[in-house]
Amino acid sequence: MKTYALLKTLTGSAICAGGLALGGGSALAEPAIFKGADLKLGEQLIAQGKCTQCHISKVGGDGSAMYKPKGKINEAGLLRGMVEQCNSMLNLQMFPEEVTSVAAVLNRDHYKFK
Ligand code: HEC
Prior knowledge:
Elements: H1 4-11, H2 39-48, H3 51-59, H4 76-89, H5 96-111
The protein binds heme C (HEC).
Heme C is lined by residues 16-17, 46, 49-51, 54-55, 58, 66-68, 71-73, 79, 82-83, 86, 90, 92, 102, 106.
């Protein structure tokens, strides 16, 4: 993958799907980190980033089976960190506020962390 070298420098961990090394991401347990997030923007970005299309290709259905609130992503900070990793790995070039918006939408729709 072409972006690999760049991503390594960005995150120290190249794989979205792999471990949860949270390069620089905050690991706050409180969705206070989603406060003021622009949910409309998050929805748009999820559609544009083809997040769902790819997830569907992996798990089928509507792709939502990819989101496992009871899995290793078990707090808001990890959720945001995961989105940040996908952002880096896929070279989506989202700004930090946009990553937060995307994570906030996933939290609202799937994870429901408090
Ligand atoms: C090229 C394919 C692909 C794209 C595009 C993609 N993902 Fe993923 N994503 C995956 C795979 C594969 C996993 C499974 C990771 C695992 O189970 O370890 C995953 C897992 C996740 C998870 C963690 C699910 C969980 O609860 O364990 C989140 C959150 C996530 N993706 C968000 C996103 C977002 C947001 C986008 C769009 C900005 C996105 N992904 C785009 C392939 C992709």
